[in-house]
Amino acid sequence: MELKLFQNKSSENTINKDLTLITTKNINLKQSTNLYQTFLVFKNDGITDYSKVNYAKMLNKYYFVSHETLQNNSLIRLELKEDVLETYKNDILNSSADIIEKSTPNNVRNIKTSKEVETFKLKSGVVLPKTQSVIMVTVASEGDK
User: Tens place of pLDDT for every residue, the chain, 145 residues?
Assistant: First the structure.
């Protein structure tokens, strides 16, 4: 599998980050791992400048990266934590929503909220593959209740 290591010059809460490719490595995961937050250990090749690496792409997911040197500079441990904004940017950018009010720093009015949760099942003839996730969100305005 391919692991691309980058230097990210953008802030963490940015979509379409400014990335500079530092190196590409072919890797094999030796055990099952949590792909949301994981770590990788490499032999230090002496060529890659890991001090510049702060971002990665693996398995079509993007990750924030921190690193540390182990055992007299012979090993490098990379800590990866998924960047969900960049990983799901196409879904985010292609979604639609109605903006009904713009917030301002001095907007201190109280908005009615409810802790009521309503759960029900809908049966459909559509069967989703197990490799796909669906998140459904509904929002009701005060007049819809």
Answer: 999 999 999 999 889 999 999 999 998 887 777 888 888 888 888 888 888 999 999 999 999 999 887 777 888 889 999 999 999 999 888 887 666 666 666 666 666 666 676 666 667 676 766 766 666 666 655 555 4
Check if the beta carbon of residue 107 is closer than 8 Å to that of residue 76: no
In single-letter form, the type of residue at position 110 comes to: N
Q: Return all residues near 81 (Cβ < 8 A) that are at least 6 apart.
A: 36, 37, 63, 64
Contact status, residue 80 vs residue 62, Cβ threshold 8 Å: no
55: Cβ–Cβ under 8 A, 6 or more apart, which residues?
Answer: 5, 6, 7, 8, 17, 19, 62, 63, 64, 65, 83
Characterise 52 by phi-psi region: left (phi > 0), alpha (psi -120 to 50), beta (else). Answer: alpha
